[in-house]
Amino acid sequence: LSRAIQVTVLGAGSWGTTVGSLVAANASSVVWARDGAVAEEISSEHRNGRYLPDLELHPMLRSTASLESAVESADVLVMAVPSQGMRAVLEEAAKYVRPWIPVVSLAKGLEQGTRCRPTEVIAEVLPGHPAGVLAGPNLAREVLAGYAAASVIAMPDEHIARSLQVLFSSRVFRVYTATDVLGCELGGVVKNVIAIAAGMAEGLGVGDNTRATVVARGLAEITRLGVAVGADPRTFAGLAGLGDLIATCMSPLSRNRYVGEQVARGRTVAEVMTEMKMVAEGVRSARAVVELANAHGVVTPIMSEVDAVVNEGRTAADAFRGLRRVPPRSELQPA
Amino acid sequence: LSRAIQVTVLGAGSWGTTVGSLVAANASSVVWARDGAVAEEISSEHRNGRYLPDLELHPMLRSTASLESAVESADVLVMAVPSQGMRAVLEEAAKYVRPWIPVVSLAKGLEQGTRCRPTEVIAEVLPGHPAGVLAGPNLAREVLAGYAAASVIAMPDEHIARSLQVLFSSRVFRVYTATDVLGCELGGVVKNVIAIAAGMAEGLGVGDNTRATVVARGLAEITRLGVAVGADPRTFAGLAGLGDLIATCMSPLSRNRYVGEQVARGRTVAEVMTEMKMVAEGVRSARAVVELANAHGVVTPIMSEVDAVVNEGRTAADAFRGLRRVPPRSELQPA
Predict the structure, then answer these.
(1) SS3 label, residue B292
(2) Which of A211, A301, B180, B241 is the most exposed place for a label (fewest CB within 10 A)?
C-alpha cells in the first residue's frame, strides 16, 4: 500500500483493543469504543482497565466514541464486536464507510436466527467490500503481554491478504495468509462450542487423556461440518482450526471453557453468563451450529450434547454419559 | 474369536502393565517382566510399584520373568518394550511364538540406525504375522486410574482390528478401529519429538497461544511427513495423531515434554535422561525422524530444531529464535 493508511477497529473489548494496539506499531490505528470513558482511557492513559487491566497499550493507539469519525477515515475496517451485535453496528457504520475498503472480522459466533457467519453479515450490509477474518490461537491478554503467537489473515483475494498481513504482524505475532475465509471463520465459531465441552470435562474432574480426546473428536466434527459447507479441510488442521481449538480448550483464560467448567460444577448457564463481564460466543452459537450441521446431514455428537446442556438444561454428567453410549467403530465414522 | 484366548504383553513398564491390566478384564492376560521381582509383585500384590505406585492392577493379571512361558501360550502378542530394545526381545521371543498370531506394538519411537518403525521390526523378525499398533492419547497412569480415554487399534486387516478391539476395550476406555498402521504408528513416534518442543516452550515461560501454535504447526509437520511416506492424512487429525499430540504436549505427566522443559531451564539432555526412570522416546527418535523427513524432501522446522537441541547442544532459546526467523507466508506452505 502506497500511502500511510488508517485502520479502524470497531469494538474495544479485549481482542479488539489488542488488535488495535498491534496495528498501531505499523499504521495509524483507531479503536471505536461505545463507552466514552473507555475511549478516553485508551487515548490518554493507554490502557483498557475494564478488559485488560495492568497491561499497557501502544502509545500511538487512539480511541473515540464517535462512530462517524472512527469510520469515515478508515482504509481498513476491523469488526471486533460480538456476532450478535455486529449487524446493528455495521448498519450504523455503513453510512460513513469509504468504498472498496476491506473489512476484517474478529468475531467468532453465528448470528442467532439467521445462522449467518460474520463475513456473511458484512456481505449483506456492505456488499462488494472484500470481507475476511483474522483467526488463530490468540488469547488477547497473552498477545498484548508480548508472548509469541501466530494467526491467519484469510481474505478471498491472496493479494489483499498479503497487504493486510503486514498491518497485523509484529516480531512475535506471526501472521500467515490464507484464502479459505469460510474455513477460518467456521473454525473460530465451532471451537467455542467444543471448548464448552472441554470445560465440562475439566469440571467433571477427568484427566488429560479425556480432554485430548474431546479436542481430537471435536476437531473431527468441525472438519466434517466444514467440508460439508464447502471449506478446505486443511484449514481445520491449521492455526484457525486446531490451533485456536487447542488454545481455547486448554487455557484457563478461555471464557467458553470457563462456562463449561462452571456448569459441570452444578451452576446454571444463566448464572455463569450473568456473572461474566465478557461474552462467551459458544453459548449463543451452539444451537445455530447444530442446526447448520443438521441442515447438511452432519453428525456432531459433542456439539449436540453441548447444545442440550446450554439450551435444554441437560447436565454435564449426562452429556458425557450420552457420548459414551455410542459404541466406537472405525475412527473415520462420525460417532 | 471362539475360544478363551491369552494375550501376552512383553514389557512391564507403565503402559505395558496398564494394557495388561485392561486386557485382564476381557481375556487371560500375562505380562512378561525382565525383572523377577517386578513379575512377583504384579502377580501376587497386583501392583507395579516402580512405574505405577499407589495404583491397583486387575487381580487376574499375571506376570512372569520367563519369556518362554509368557510367549509360548500367547494368542496375541503385545510389544511394550521401548523401540531401541524391541528387536532383541523379539528375536529372543521368536523361538516360542505360535504361527499366525497378531502382534501389536505399543512403542512410539524409531529404531536408531535403521530408522525402522516398530511394526517394520516386527515384520523383519516375525514375517507373516499381522502387525499393528494401539495408539492414542493414553497417559498410562490416568488410564489405569479409570479416567475415560480413547485409543485406536490399527491393523492392516479391519477384521483382525475388530477382533482385537474387544480385548482392549472397557466401559471407559474406548477403542476405535483403523487400518492405517503406518499413520497411527508414525503419529505416535513424531509427537514425542514435537512434545519436546512444547516442553521447551513451557520451560521458556511462553503462554498458551505459543503452546497451541507449536502443536498446530507440529501437526502440520507430522501430516506432511506422513503423507510423504504414504499414510492417510486423516489419521493425523485423529486420536493417534492430534489426540496423542495434545495429551503429550499439554500434560505434566508426559516424559518428553518434561525433557524439553528441563532443557529450556538450562539442564543438559544427558542430565535429564540420567535422572528419569522412564524412557523419553522422542530424544532417541529426533535424529531418525529428521533423517526420514530429509530423505523424503519434507521441511520440518520444529523437529529439526528439536534435533539440534537434543543432539547438537543448541539452546532452547536459540531454537525458538530460529523458528521465528522464517517470515510467515501462506499457511499451507511448510515454514
Answers:
(1) helix
(2) A301
Q: What cell numbers appear for A214 in the block?
A: 474431546
Under DSSP, the state recorded for B41 is I
Q: Does A84 touch chain B (CB under 8 A)?
A: no
Q: State the residue for C-alpha cell 515454514.
A: B335
Answer yes or no: do B139 and A207 touch at CB < 8 A.
yes
Q: How many angstroms separate the first and last alpha carbons of chain A?
A: 49
Distance from CA of B94 to the nearest CA of A (A): 31
In this complex, do A208 and B236 lie within 8 Å of one another by their Cβ atoms? no
Q: Is A101 left (phi over 0), alpha (psi -120 to 50) or beta?
A: beta
Q: Do B216 and A238 count as a contact with CB atoms less than 8 A apart?
A: yes
In this structure, which long-range contacts are made by residues B322-326, counting pairs with CB atoms below 8 Å and at least 24 apart in sequence?
B324/A148, B324/A171, B324/A172, B324/A174, B326/B301
Best CA proximity match to B242, nearest among B164, B188, B312, B203: B188
CB-CB neighbors (< 8 A) of B213 in chain A = 136-137, 148-150, 174, 239, 243
Q: What separation in angstroms does the CA of A42 have from each of A14, A31, A56, A168?
A: 12, 9, 9, 19
Q: What is the pLDDT of residue B147?
A: 86
Q: Could you report the predicted ipTM of this complex, rounded to two decimals?
A: 0.77
Query: Closest Cα partner for B122 from B158, B160, B76?
Result: B76
- Pick the residue from chain A with its C-alpha nearest to B321: A172
Q: Is B172 left (phi over 0), alpha (psi -120 to 50) or beta?
A: alpha
If 0-12 CB within 10 Å is exposed, 13-18 middle and 19+ buried, where does residue B156 land? middle
Half-sphere exposure of residue B60: CA atoms within 13 angstroms, side-chain side: 11
Q: Tell me the C-alpha distance between B328 and B325, whole Å.
A: 9
Polymer length in residues for chain A: 335
Closest CA to A22 of A33, A32, A31, A34: A31
Run of H or E including B273 = helix B269-275
Q: Per-residue pLDDT tens for A202-232?
A: 888 777 888 888 888 899 899 999 999 999 9
pTM > 0.90: yes or no? no
Q: Which three cell numbers stand for residue B121?
A: 521390526
Query: How many whole angstroms separate alpha carbon A148 and alpha carbon A241?
Result: 18
Q: Does B71 touch chain A (CB under 8 A)?
A: no
What is the amino acid identity at position A274?
A: T
pLDDT in tens, A133-168: 999 998 899 899 988 889 999 999 999 999 999 999
Nearest to A79 by CA among A42, A45, A125, A26: A125
Cβ pair A237, A175 in contact under 8 A: no
Place of cell 521465528: B324
C-alpha cell at A27: 499504521
| Run of H or E including B10 | strand B6-10
Q: What is the Cβ-side half-sphere exposure of residue B220, based on CA atoms within 13 angstroms?
A: 26
Closest C-alpha among B9, B115, B222, B244 to residue A215: B244
Q: CA–CA separation, A32 vs A43, rounded Å? A: 11
Q: Give tens-digit pLDDT for A34-83.
A: 999 999 999 999 999 999 999 999 999 999 999 999 999 999 999 999 99
